[in-house]
What does this fold into?
Amino acid sequence: MSDLIIDEEFLGQIELLQTLLKNCAAGAFGGSHKSKTFGSSCEFADYRDYIPGDDITKIDWNAFARFEKLYLKLYLDERQVHTRIYIDASRSIGYGKGGKNRQAIRLAAAFAYLAVCEMDRVSVYAVHDDKLEDLIVDMLGKESYINNIGKLNDIVFDGDSRISDAILPSKVGYGDGLSVIISDFLTDNDYVAAIDHLAAKKRDILCVQLLSEEELNPKFRGKMHFYDCEQSEKYYRKNINKEIINAYRLALEYATGKVRDCCYARGGEYILVSAEDSMSSVFLDKLMEGGVIK
Amino acid sequence: MSLLYVFGLLGLLGIPVLIFIYIIKNKYTEQTISSTYLWSLSEKFIKRRIPINRLVGIISLILQILMVILISVLLAHPVITVPNAARAYCFVLDGSGSMNISLGEKTRFEAGKDEIRSMVRDASNGSEFTLIFAADTTDIVYERLTDKERALNILDSLDPAYVTPDIIETLDTVEGFFKDNNGTRIYLITDKNYEEVENIELINVTEGFPVAENYALTDVGYEVVDGSSLHVRGKAVSYTTAASLTVELYVNDDDKKPEDFVKYDTATVQTSSAASGLEEAHFELTCNVPAFKAVKVVITETDALAMDNEIRLYNTEAEKFSDTLIVSDTPFFVKANMEAAGNVDCTVVSTEEYEKGGYSGYGLYVFDGYDPVDNMPRDGAVWFFGPRSTVSGSNFSYQGDGTPKHMAEYSDVNSSTVVKSLLTGVSMTAFDLGKYSKCGVGGNVNTLISCDENPILFTCTNAYGNRETVFAFRLNDSSDFTMSSDCAVLFSNLLGYTFPTIVTQTEYYSGDTMLVHVPSGCSSIEVVTPSGQRNYIDTTSDIAEYKLGEVGVFDITMKMKSNEARSLRVFSSLAEEERFTEVVDFEFTVRGTYEETFFDGIYDDLMFIFIALAVIAVADFGVYCYEQYQLR
It folds into this structure.
């Protein structure tokens, strides 16, 4: 990748985003954690800023004496959450000027940061064909995040992606956190089995369907011959007119609905994200309005 | 079917070009996209497939190919031949003066033209049209013309005359045509009723219209009583029914403004049946004017033919330049005869006095027994009596004295118009002559009297453009001639010739021929007709003729060699026989046998192809709009 997607500026943005989420949200990210992420065990984990309403017994007065600022001492819960993020690294995500790859990496980084802030363990995987590439494994804490998150810049988006074939054989844990799948889901390949598998493993599931603006609102008109970037034998040849565009919109609605319904049916969450959406709109609007963040 | 311009089919080459453009234009734009999944999925959501959507492109191509084909066919100009669909038409259009009578919104002539237009338009293409126009003369305007538009355009350019056509000439022309084209249906378009017609289909343009009222002025003349009282008399005529008519008198006395007439008198008259069979009423209008140039008499009531409701009379008392110089040592006979013959102001000088010089500015120089050999005057007419020398600039040469062997005899009056005019009223009795001078004469000499085949009285134009009269004898050498009545008449005629009245008459009927006496030194005579046409009269002869073909005032302007110009006017009224609103003629029969003949009709009307082309173009535009709507 010629330019870095995860850079200091971006990290500053998600830091700010995290603060905003803190101010807006009453609970922690994910909402479906069965146990508190920072519990009452003796193992110190991190500090965080005091927010009115926090348990004042957990304020570190030594730190206050030194910095004249209220910090809360956080301790690791005994039931530690493990957030796993799966990025569809197929060619369809990386192709063209839609910026889906950039948005996928940013979303993964943002989700990872939010998880790290909640002292979750985070792993990030890239789905290549039927394999999972371990990009970041068991990342814990901000320092580790800073050190590792840049690896997302190295994802190569190429080939196909068979999400189910990749996730099913992998270790996904059991009831220990959130699984985020970031993909365009524009495939005939099976992804439902993966969702079923994750649901069976009592994982919280969030499917992020990432589409480019060109896919959401195609501007093509007239006689077009489309080639599929992943499979050259696939093509679509038509005079794109009003009728076809109307049919396309119905197809889009169908395809997104299919993913959404699949998620909801399995107790998961779903959001549709445009490659051009800003992080704040994704997290503050879509995720909060969708009830993913409570 | 045949094609007029076969090369027009080369336009069909546009079809492969069009197809090629269509292929180029309809090439699919190739593009690789991240996924064709949604596009392929969309196939399942196409609600209903409208066949036209798939055919829009091909429909457009088909329509455009059709347009190319139609344009090629248009260029090739197809001509379809239909057997026995066409025929030949001959229209004989009456262009007489009565066709100017109004039928309400249009004249009879226009109604006649409408009849012809209607028949030409309704005729099958390929029909032949012949138009014979009977007006001043009867002419075949076009013969066996197949081009309808051209036939109609030529018809449009025709105007009625103001005269009565020569029916004999018209019949001859029609018969001549029919003799060679007896399969032609002949239509006579006229306002006259013919009791008998043969081989003619009569179309009376007045049918269906009420009989029009027409009033007219006739026999109008004037008289000046006691030098200043002008009496104008005439008749007001109603050609249909009795009528009460108002007649007005106008007088003009300003040469510079010939159209400025002042109203002087009005009379209201009631017409009544007269011996002529018409409704007539006499009128007399008077006024006191010291002098006048013209009078105008008008009927104020409105009728179907306005042009015969006005008459203008012009004062013919033209200015005459009649100062005469008599150069003679024995002037008695000459002076007495000239003064007796006319209003001539004579000055007599002796030859001795004349030779001293200084005599000029006279209208006429009379040399009696004296020859101005090298100093003949150039500014006036010249008379010679008994020349005995050749005078430089004259139109004769002296060839010695002659002794008569026979009596002097007059020439044949029919030898020329001038001779006939100069010998008018002369008894032409031969007379004895004592002696005479033998004169050799040049061209354009009008010999009135000769003796022993030598001209002894002749007129001509000299080298200076002036009129010249030569008596090859002296009056005192022929007492017989001097004492005869012919002498006085001849002197009068010769003075008239020397000081010509340019026109002897100022009121005519259309179709009349006006005689114009060409004055000495006249370089051109221009006649402006009432319709504004400018014509020029031949000035090479002493008396010129001009046919008055219109109704109204004719302006005549004479330009002299001295750049002086003289103007006068004459008025031409509509011929009396053309004023009748209803005319019944006896017969118009064309001898011969009509054999109805049909021939192949031609249909080369491209209008349907134009319409089809327009419809297809609109349809193509509609398809294009639909396509663009679909691509929104």
